[in-house]
Structure formats: structure tokens, C-alpha cells
Write a sequence for this structure.
């Protein structure tokens, strides 16, 4: 592991959310920049809901902050602060990354789904023609659904205890991918050969599966967004049946790569003069 | 040197100014925190004048930013953002540090002078009864004058090309230290046995002395605020005459200690819960 040094010329990136102490990006991204010889750090930035707008405007006006990762609970709320949006962010109305371009404007997009797709591809799993049952129509579920449709899955059944959420995600996806079979569902449809948990069930000790999983075979591709070193109930299920799986850690590794590439693609790095004094 | 690691629980401190790439505090303070086993970093924060208020309000509202060092050109402007001021900041109307207290309020004070005093004491120099000629009535000069008077110097003659600045600093110092002999001056008075450069002269290559220095003996205590590894004209003068001296580097080392102690004395460190997920 190389040594991170912060000096006056260090460029700043931040991950904003609340709470913030549990996020892993500061460690993984800072290490990635250090290893690449880039003088930049990823900071944890805790923003309390009552100060949201004040903090966001202040951060985006700083002269040496070049990008933001956005986590819970601000992914939808941050859309209004981007000057332009990528396709996924526009489709689902949420983003998890913003970068500053050379002209000072901000571009936002959503990589929660890209991480899942990259994670699956890394493990050599075919996504095209899959019949997907997706638990969770929130931010992560929306982004993954978007990514899966772009990757060519055959159908997605969206299962969420909040039927309105499932319905409104269905509508948004149909607008962007009119040729695909997307529908809300009360449970895993017969014939599904991919099951993804994008709900928060599995996050707490003692959590079970996100719902009735139906029949699982060794061909069923299992996915779980919960990012933990422990085996979640979904991953335990996959191991028990010998299924291929994409765990939260696979997804987050893939997302890290996608985010680093997104930040690196800013139209130009701002430069700053360095006078001799301090 | 120990390895700095940034994670979600890292507490943030920042040095704000414009430009910012030249400041040294990010490196020295971050290293001091790392060595002490404190999970905190000191960041460079560039604030452009046109975004000053927006950035300051946003930074001070962040949930995990515990302190700010303030440098050029914001030392006077930041006074309005402190909920309470220390004696030196109140005397001269400028501050260079703010810390957040347990109740969320901010305490500000000025340590530019304290650094000079600590730097002189570290080298074993006596300040009491000195007859001082001070070049520069700006922020650094004001803070050093305040510190010198508190340390018991006999008199201070304030030399500044802007006579109004010299006069208004004189008035401010007389209000706080009515028993002391403080006056504006056109040059170094005869009988001075301490000469301090608190102007920016000496910062640029090719700069000379800040003015006519008069007669220097081996007893004359020389001070210079310019923080550089090179020998400034003032320090060259001291070396040539065998004078005791406090260089910008001595002053900045002393100021670092004073600032770390100021931040550590906040009424309580905010704490944050750490849920299991990321």
C-alpha cells in the first residue's frame, strides 16, 4: 500500500450522505488515486438534512473540489443540482456521481446499475435474455433495472412492498426501453432465471430473504446489493444451490471502476498557480 | 513517517484561502494527526472571492468538519462568522482559526502572533522590555504586535507605507494595552533592539529589505514572517551581523502547536453512529 500525502495542491473529491462514518469510498478511492500517482483524495462529507441545500451549494462552489459521490439519502435530491444528466440518471431521476467540467458546470449520472453490470461481466455471466425478478424499486433497484435492460435482459418483474414505487419505476423504464417486458409483480414469476435483491433487506443481522424466492436451480443467477463481508441470506441461498451470483462486494468493485472513469473523463482538470510563499 | 488513511469516520479540518496550492498546513497538520493516532485530516480549501459567503456557510454547516484555518485573503472577513472571539482576534479584528464547539457554535481566534512568540521562546529569546520596530500593519503585523505587547515589550513603532493602516493599528493596540508605548513611525527609531518584518516584502525573488533598517548590532533581535526555505533579506542581515532571529519557519512551527492545542480544546468532539452497511 502506498502512502497518501495531502498537500496544498491536493484535489478534493467527496462522498456526501448521512450518516457517513460507514462509507468505504474514502478508503478505496483515495488508495486508488495514490496508487495511480494522482494527488487527490476522497473525503467523507456528512450533510444533515436541515443543511442540505446550504452545504451542497457551498461544496459545489469550492475552487478545488472536482467531484462528488452521492449516497443515501440524497441521490434523488441531487438531480436538481446537475447542469446535465447522463441517460441512466435521467431515466430514473436519481444520480450518485457529479463531476465538474472545465467550464465549471456539473455533469451527473447514476452508476449503481453500472457497478452491477460490470460485476456480472467480470465474473463472466451472460445477462442477455435473462428473465429477472427484482426486489426493490428504490434507487439501487431503479439503477440496476436500467442497466439490465440496457444489457439486453428479456424481462423484469419488479417486486416492492410499496406498489406505487413498483408501478412508477415500471412506467419510467417503459418510456426509456419501450421494447422490453417490464411489469410490477407481487412475487417471483414462474420461469424467472435471475433474482436480484436491491432492497435493504439483508442489511441488518437477523434479516431473512427479501420475499418468497420460488424455485431456484443451479442456473438461476442471484444478485444482492448488500455490501458486506458477511454472507447475506441471498448469497447463502446461491451457495446452497450452486448458483452463479453477483454479491454487493462485486457490484461495488465494478461501480468503483465506473466512477473513477467518470471522474477522469471531465473535460479538463482545473489548474492552479502556485506562488512561492505559504 | 506514518501512513495517513482516510475512511468514512475521518474528521475534517480545512485551511481556506485563495490561492491555496502553496499552503503547507495540509501536510504538517495531517501528519501531526496521523502521528498522534487521531483520525483527522487537514484539507486545502480554495474559496474564490465571488463564492466566499456561499462556501463558508456551506463548510460550517457540514456534519463532520470540526475546524478551519483561515489564510489570505479572508482573515478579517471571517470574523463575522464566529459566534465568539478570543482576545487577540477581538483586538485586531481578524482571525486565522475557527473551531466548532459541542453545541455547534464556532469560536475564532488569531494565532499568527502566538506563533511568533512561541517561536522566539523556543529559541530562548527574551522579549520583555524590547524596543520593537515593526514593518507591516496588516494581519500578520497586527497579530504579532498584539502578542509582543502581551509578552511585555517596552515599545512598538509601526512602519507601514499606508499611514492610515499604521495609525488604526496603533489606536486598536492602545485600547487593549493602554500602558504600552505604541506609535506609528516613518522608519526604525534610534534605540530599537528588535526589528520584525511582517510585510510581504521578501516574499518574491529579488525583494530587498522592507525599508531602511538603521543600525543593527549583535543584540538586535530580528524577526521575519516570510515562510520559506530560502534565506530572506532580513534573515541574511541577521546572519551577517550575528543577530538572534526568528524566521518564518520558526514562527509557523510555533503557530502549528498553538493551533493544534486550540482545536483540541473544543468543548467536545462530535460523535457519529456507524451502522453496519455502506
Amino acid at each position: 500500500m502506498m502512502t497518501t500525502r495531502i498537500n496544498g495542491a491536493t484535489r478534493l473529491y467527496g462522498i456526501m450522505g448521512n450518516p457517513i462514518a460507514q462509507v468505504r469510498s474514502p478508503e478505496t478511492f483515495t488508495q486508488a488515486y495514490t496508487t495511480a500517482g494522482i494527488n487527490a483524495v476522497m473525503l467523507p462529507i456528512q450533510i444533515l438534512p436541515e443543511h442540505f441545500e446550504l452545504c451542497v451549494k457551498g461544496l459545489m462552489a469550492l475552487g478545488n473540489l472536482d467531484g462528488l459521490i452521492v449516497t443515501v439519502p440524497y441521490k434523488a435530491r441531487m438531480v436538481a443540482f446537475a447542469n446535465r444528466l447522463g441517460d441512466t440518471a435521467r431515466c430514473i431521476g436519481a444520480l450518485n456521481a457529479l463531476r465538474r467540467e472545465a467550464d465549471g458546470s456539473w455533469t451527473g449520472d447514476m452508476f449503481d446499475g453500472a457497478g452491477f453490470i460490470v460485476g456480472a461481466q467480470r465474473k463472466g455471466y451472460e445477462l442477455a435474455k435473462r428473465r429477472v425478478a427484482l426486489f426493490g424499486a428504490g434507487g439501487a433497484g431503479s439503477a440496476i433495472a436500467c442497466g439490465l435492460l440496457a444489457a439486453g435482459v428479456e424481462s423484469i418483474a419488479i417486486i416492492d412492498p410499496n406498489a406505487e414505487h413498483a408501478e412508477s419505476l415500471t412506467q419510467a423504464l417503459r418510456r426509456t426501453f419501450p421494447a422490453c417486458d417490464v411489469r410490477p409483480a407481487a412475487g417471483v414469476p414462474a420461469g424467472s432465471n435471475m433474482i436480484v435483491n436491491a432492497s435493504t433487506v439483508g442489511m441488518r443481522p437477523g434479516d431473512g430473504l427479501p420475499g418468497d424466492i420460488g424455485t431456484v436451480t443451479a442456473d438461476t443467477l442471484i444478485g444482492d446489493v448488500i455490501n458486506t463481508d458477511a454472507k447475506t441470506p441471498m448469497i447463502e441461498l446461491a451457495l446452497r444451490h450452486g448458483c452463479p451470483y453477483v454479491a454487493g462486494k462485486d457490484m461495488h468493485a465494478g461501480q468503483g471502476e465506473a466512477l473513477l472513469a467518470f471522474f477522469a473523463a471531465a473535460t479538463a482538470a482545473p489548474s492552479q498557480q502556485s506562488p512561492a510563499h505559504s
Observations:
- Helices of chain B lie at 25-35, 52-60, 87-92, 112-122, 139-150, 163-176, 233-241, 248-264.
